[in-house]
């Protein structure tokens, strides 16, 4: 498919043939729900304790689930965020988009953070009390503080809301670059060249290899790298770490540019078997180097580290293309159930962490396999979270803030205008 032919899809601000891309809605929602599962595994990882809730039962299976889900879930999320963001800018303009982002991203971050942080602290304390049988003493607190690593510059506990903070960075950077390009590229030649390059990358069977280069380079040269964790979560500082900045800006920017030729995403739908095979192979090769159990040690110079940097970055992009392609191939029809999940996923992700931690603490004393404990946690957490969404959010002002609209009550007509999914 040439760049000229692919660009025909750009005439639609929704998707191919002017239809809503239900598959991308599904991926966005499931990526957020996968984040809940990801956090639910963390009390049960073998090796050094990484989580406030200390459970004596550990699992290599859950460690593998943690590793694989961390490879691609956030890069996939940010690619789709970039794709939808360009769609809305083109459809409604920059001012409307900025206003929408302020309401749906900045407000939940500013309002939600102090509430959720307090609940996370309470859940952490509960986990400690359940695990040890007493409230931490001043001596224990001082000992833990002494063992803690030196805080980074502008340290701040963003918690799991870091993704909202990173989105605001990405929005600002993208708008700045867009304004610069519009000012300098008055004839459109630069944009045409970029469109041609993006089309070439997407059409190439080696696209995942090409896009893996920036992340692989930052892994190797961006500073100390804890390679088992790939992209370290930028949740403890107001300055994003180099790995997250490069990986997530690449994904967001690529999604933004692909939407200029939205017909290109059909290639991912056709190539999902190839991308899935590449994802599984590169992930297995990466795990063969670092092992399934978590390692906190820094990467050491050597060919094994070089190989793993390339394999991890390759797995990130091949998984991203595979899951998007699978969704476009098999989940692109309208489904009320999937739409409900997509609408609710933002709220569920915002509120899940203190609830999951509290439930992990509640099952600490049970003499059950780690996998079963995690299933119990999720089996209780998801119904409670869905119920809170349905009763407190879906048809209230909170839903209007998070999803851009308030879902009408049964019997009332839904709004005709297409509403962009929340990132």
Low-confidence stretches: 1-17, 413-423
Strand composition percent: under 5%
User: Could you describe the largest sheet, including whether it forms a barrel?
Assistant: none
Protein structure class:
mainly alpha
Shape: globular
Arithmetic mean pLDDT: 89
What's the β-strand tally? Answer: 0
Rg over alpha carbons: 22 Å
Distance between the termini: 29 Å
Secondary structure: helix percent: 55-70%
Tally of helical runs: 15
The ordered string of helix (H) and strand (E) elements is HHHHHHHHHHHHHHH
How many discrete structural domains? 1
Describe the structure.
It contains 15 helices and no strands. Helices cover 68% and strands 0% of the residues. It has one domain (3-393). It starts with a helix and ends in a 20-residue tail after the last helix. It is mostly helical and 423 residues long. Helix 3 (60-92) packs across helix 9 and helix 13 (336-362) crosses helix 14.
Write the layout of secondary structure elements.
Blueprint: H1 3-6, H2 22-41, H3 60-92, H4 94-132, H5 138-147, H6 162-184, H7 189-203, H8 207-221, H9 242-259, H10 265-270, H11 272-290, H12 303-330, H13 336-362, H14 370-393, H15 397-403
Helix pairs in contact: 2-3, 2-12, 2-13, 3-4, 3-9, 3-12, 4-6, 4-13, 8-9, 8-12, 11-12, 13-14
Considering the chains and any ligands shown, give keywords for the structure.
mainly alpha; 423 residues; globular
Characterize this entry briefly:
This protein is an all-alpha fold and 423 residues long. The protein has 15 helices and no strands.
């Amino acid at each position: 498919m040439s760049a000229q032919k692919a660009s025909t899809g750009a005439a639609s601000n929704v998707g191919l043939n002017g239809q809503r891309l239900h598959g991308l809605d599904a991926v966005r929602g499931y990526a957020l729900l996968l984040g809940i599962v990801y956090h639910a595994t963390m009390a049960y990882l073998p090796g050094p304790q990484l989580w406030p809730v200390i459970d004596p039962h550990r699992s290599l299976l859950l460690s593998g689930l943690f590793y694989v889900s961390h490879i691609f879930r956030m890069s996939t999320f940010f690619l789709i965020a970039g794709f939808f963001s360009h769609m809305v800018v083109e459809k409604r303009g920059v001012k409307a988009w900025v206003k929408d982002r302020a309401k749906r991203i900045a407000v939940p971050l500013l309002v939600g953070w102090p509430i959720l942080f307090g609940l996370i602290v309470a859940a952490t304390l509960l986990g400690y009390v359940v695990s040890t049988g007493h409230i931490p003493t001043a001596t224990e607190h001082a000992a833990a503080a002494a063992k803690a690593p030196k805080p980074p510059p502008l340290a701040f506990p963003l918690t799991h809301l870091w993704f909202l903070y990173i989105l605001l960075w990405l929005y600002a950077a993208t708008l700045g670059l867009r304004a610069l390009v519009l000012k300098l590229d008055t004839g459109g030649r630069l944009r045409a060249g970029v469109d041609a390059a993006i089309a070439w990358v997407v059409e190439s069977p080696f696209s995942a290899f090409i896009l893996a280069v920036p992340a692989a380079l930052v892994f190797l040269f961006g500073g100390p790298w804890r390679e088992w964790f790939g992209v370290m979560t930028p949740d403890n500082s107001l300055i994003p770490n180099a790995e997250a900045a490069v990986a997530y800006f690449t994904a967001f920017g690529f999604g933004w540019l692909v939407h200029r030729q939205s017909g290109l995403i059909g290639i991912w739908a056709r190539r999902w078997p190839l991308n899935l095979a590449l994802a599984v192979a590169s992930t297995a090769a990466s795990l063969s180097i670092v092992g399934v159990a978590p390692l906190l040690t820094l990467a050491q110079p050597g060919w094994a580290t070089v190989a793993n940097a390339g394999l991890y970055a390759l797995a990130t992009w091949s998984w991203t293309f595979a899951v998007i392609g699978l969704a476009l191939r098999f989940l692109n029809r309208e489904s009320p159930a999937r739409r409900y999940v997509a609408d609710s996923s933002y709220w569920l992700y915002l509120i899940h962490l203190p609830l999951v931690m509290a439930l992990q603490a509640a099952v600490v004393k049970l003499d059950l396999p780690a996998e079963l404990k995690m299933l119990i946690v999720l089996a209780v957490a998801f119904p409670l979270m869905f119920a809170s969404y349905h009763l407190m959010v879906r048809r209230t002002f909170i839903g209007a803030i998070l999803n851009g609209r308030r879902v009408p009550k049964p019997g009332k007509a839904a709004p005709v205008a297409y509403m962009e999914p929340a990132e």
